[in-house]
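Re: CR1 structure - here you go.
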Amino acid sequence: VEASIPEPQRDAWKKHSAQGFTTKEQFEDETVRHVETTLARSLFNCDELAAYSGASLAFRDRLVIEWNKTQQRQTFADQKRVYYLSLEFLMGRALDNAMLNVGLKDVARAGLKDLGFRIEDVISQEHDAALGNGGLGRLAACFLDSMATLNYPAWGYGLRYRYGIFKQEIVDGYQVEVPDYWLDFNPWEFPRHDITVDIQFYGHVSRHQDEDGKNVAVWEGGEIVDAVAYDVPIPGFQTPTTNNLRLWSSKASKGEFDFQKFNSGDYEASVGDQQRAETISAVLYPNDNLERGKELRLKQQYFWCAASLYDIVRRFKKSKKAWSAFPDMVAIQLNDTHPTLAIVELQRILVDLEGLDWVEAWGIVQNTFSYANHTVMPEALEKWSVPVMQNLLPRHLQIIYEVNSQFLQMVEKQFPKDRDMLRRVSIIEESQPKMVRMAYLATIGSHKVNGVAELHSDLIKSTIFKDFVEIYGPDKFTNVTNGITPRRWLHQANPRLSELIASKLGGYEFLTDLTKLNKLEHFLDDKDFKKEWQEIKYANKVRLAQHIVNTTGVRVNPKALFDIQVKRIHEYKRQQLNILGVIHRYLTIKAMSAEERKKLAPRVSIFGGKAAPGYWMAKTVIHLVCSVGEVVNNDKDVGDLLKVVYIEDYNVSKAEIITPASDISEHISTAGTEASGTSNMKFVLNGGLIIGTCDGANIEITREVGESNIFLFGNLAEDVEDLRHAHNYGSFKLDPDLAKVFDAIKDGAFGDANRFTALCSSITDHGDYYLVSDDFNSYIKTHALVDEAYKDQDAWLEKCITSVSRMGFFSSDRCIQEYAEMIWNVEPLVPEQRNGK
Ligand code: CR1
């Protein structure tokens, strides 16, 4: 308040208030000004990177102007806000998205052309913001886009990692990891050195009497690290609403920085402290669906939760409302269990710092939080060792024990004498060492828990949270099927298709109401439309083929069927099934006569995705794909009938090139393991069909597009357990076609067989946990159906267009509306539209 400009001077202020450009002339002014003054370059010294920087700064100015107004509007409206806590935000590039969302891409294209640049070259200078591993982080990014587009007063909170997900290089057919230092020049963030929060670690808890004679816990000692805010503006599409993504960066605290050491000449030691503090936000853990229980990870989690909660509570306190109103003003969404400590931190703030009574505080906490579960894979469920937590967060562990004790008393009343129930649902697992089960803590501390696709939401109720359904009743558990933003994943990634659709539907309304796509079915007999659709797909395949030859040297025929699997490498996602199927195809081609070969549809099998650096089996799969490619791509018998390529360093910007170029894509996880999947939605929305198992969102995609427009195969989730059990009790029979594939590998057809022994024997000798053999026959038969179907190009095209027209459900706008209405209870804050929109 003290910082606001006095009333008499405000007119002068308003007169000079920044406007941001709207015309081409103004865009050029702003871009050149930034190149010359912000970057200190000139027309004799302006390369594409400088042009990118200048254009980005011009757009950033625009965003930040709307960002400021949005913040003011939200403060003024004094209504409930939603806070989305996620350890990952996989944003990708920002410039193209900003241009499209504010509706000035054409202006920028023309302006850049005047200044001597092609817009595509400028856009491609940007380094991806890759602060995530895979689906969970990209979902958070799609949600930010939808929340802003739908005008929700929403904030994202995350960590500003100095190193995002590593860059993958493929060297001699092996993955090599290179650090991703992405902050060299990042015009999209605003450092807020004035917004700094002290975060405490270690120390001990003592008890004191306060003025009223109440016994209070005081957390003392230990060390302090500073959290500094960096803000990233998130523009909505066709709306002035520009929300905030606040990322915290760690820094040695001014109070802590050891001036003693510094003054006594031990400069190195004092700098060492500084570096140790900065380590907290230094690096994103590169595991997808795997938790390793490292102390630094727990430090990251607390650092980020505590800083975010401090910020949220401070904002609430400005409203001067009673604490009981907190859940009416604040909804906090936990993206998986990573931010579960926020529950404990809020209870600590309310009880220890604000003096609320325990029960009242806990009621506020439960009404504030909601938790989305993203996996049932046991190795991904977070558990923290009690001794580690005791040391790092002594007061939080006490609070967890107290929460647990009250919870267990409640359960005991409900299920008297059921000792086993108490053991099963306790937040503390009685193992050696004891462990804190974060998914249980998140469930107990939230008013709603959701899964991310129907099957997954059913599965969590019958497996990991079965007892909790009995305790709380089924209404606490719900489903919100994932979605994707059509702005990035159609309009931005596939501009020609977006334009064609708009020309048929009479405008771009489908981008904010994706169900409007259903009108496309009226054009199934429109020859020109279909021809243009096909040409666009072909052009997208040519673009990908160009990328493939540039990066791998392999020349692929864009007329061939493009069969794509891009996602993190994981045994449950079964890239091994795919490559073993490819080998089967290769062996089949080799055994064919020249006549038979003529009838076969040429294929390009495209793989991409990173393996966690410590995930040896996943790295072996990459190596097998590359080794098969080496042989197949150089086999004269095969020619264009089959090519196998590995696209290096799959990330968001590559996905924007890859997704529009598929004929078929693979979503082939063992049934019951993939919570949802979201690339399945992206591929179908871009006019590709999919081959998949009855898993995750594939099931709902099938329901929407119709069974005849998808290639489903494999065992069902309900049969998986029995099959695994049978394997373990001696009834495992290797599929005969798969046996031939293994024989070829063992004969050295793809190089030294020893490198693949463990991969093969995980299937043949160690229980085939992911049912590769059980599903193999069904998989290759279904691929034969794909070949057949592709021969009838007209029918194929009709399937694609029909599918696209039925994808409306999978917009992340629909998800956000469901979260807002069913879980958060927040209302949009619709601004007065400006610029005639
Ligand atoms: C799931 O594996 C899902 C995303 C987003 C992943 C994937 O199927 O689409 O979440 N889960 O909901 C995950 O990363 C830690 O769990």
